[in-house]
Automatic annotation (TrEMBL):
Signal peptide: none
Protein's name according to its UniProt entry: SDR family NAD(P)-dependent oxidoreductase
Family affiliation: Belongs to the short-chain dehydrogenases/reductases (SDR) family.
Xref: InterPro entries: NAD(P)-bd_dom_sf, SDR_fam
Length: 286
């Protein structure tokens, strides 16, 4: 049975916390029918209380994604937007990070996201409209040491989004990329905790320790509502921009990376992380 005919329907992944949770609440306030998806369905009581609908999705499990899409289409008869927000950051020196962990990060941040996109596109093409919104990162346009694998997944997402935009435009489907900067969320603390645990004996501690401090500094960053507001603006636009960046730090760092030659960007990174050749050789870590 189709519910609330005429209301637009959005599916938001990674909805149990942080940016995803904020997007669900924002789109509910905008009058959309909102499905929040995550593995931790038990963490979405607040969203259900706000009128959202919780569905289980593990983006590394094809069956769970197919079942969720089938459930939504059966209940609503339409799916107007997919917000691909699920993802995580696994930090560490490229020499240290196990290849299995690197593969898992690509499975979650890239392949799972694209598989879910494949599953919703037939309904959007049939309707002649729809929006695929990919939550990338300013890290999809810049890079930092110790975040190489994470940045690689977001750079891949940027390219896939551009290619997809051109492919689906003739069917009336839009593709939009959101590039958040530093945002308060459990994501950064979890990433810092994992980094501290896995690199405590690393020869790259001169870089991992500053990165851990940077990640923990996200506690004083802008709230996730900043990104939720940006998503709402993009979904409401008749002709949305290809990319949106928020808050200001994302706009600043992406612009600086574009302006700076490689050698200058590397010098800025070394300075900001307190690294010099002398500090490494003096620590016996080479």
């Amino acid at each position: 049975m189709v519910e609330q005919a005429g209301k637009k329907v959005v599916l938001v992944t990674g909805a149990s916390a942080g940016i995803g949770q904020a997007i669900v609440l924002k789109m509910r306030s905008e009058g959309w029918i909102v499905y929040g998806a995550a593995r931790r369905v038990n963490k979405m009581d607040e969203l259900v209380a706000a009128g959202a609908k919780a569905v289980f999705i593990d983006v590394t499990d094809d069956a769970s994604m197919a079942a969720a899409v089938e459930t939504i289409l059966a209940a609503e008869g339409r799916l107007d937007a997919l917000v691909n927000n699920a993802g995580y950051g696994s930090y560490g020196a490229l020499e240290d990070v196990p290849i299995d962990e690197a593969r898992r990060q690509f499975e979650v941040n890239v392949f799972g996201l694209m598989r879910l996109t494949q599953l919703v596109l037939p309904a959007m093409r049939a309707a002649g409209s729809g929006t695929i919104m990919n939550i990338s990162s300013m890290g999809g346009r810049i890079w930092m040491p110790i975040g190489g694998w994470y940045h690689a997944t977001k750079h891949a997402l940027e390219v896939l989004s551009d290619a997809l935009r051109v492919e689906v435009q003739p069917f009336g489907v839009k593709v939009v990329v959101i590039q958040p900067g530093a945002i308060q969320s459990e994501w950064s603390d979890i990433s810092a905790d994992n980094l501290d645990t896995t690199t405590k004996n690393s020869v790259y501690r001169f870089l991992t320790e500053p990165m851990s401090r940077i990640l923990r500094g996200y506690a004083s960053a802008k709230p996730p509502g900043v990104i939720a507001d940006t998503v709402a603006v993009a979904l409401a636009a008749k002709n949305p921009r290809r990319r949106y960046r928020a808050p200001f730090d994302a706009k600043l760092y992406v612009r600086l990376h574009w302006l700076f030659p490689d050698w200058l960007w590397e010098r800025v990174l070394r300075s900001s992380m307190g690294w010099t050749t002398k500090s490494v050789t003096g620590s016996g870590q080479v």
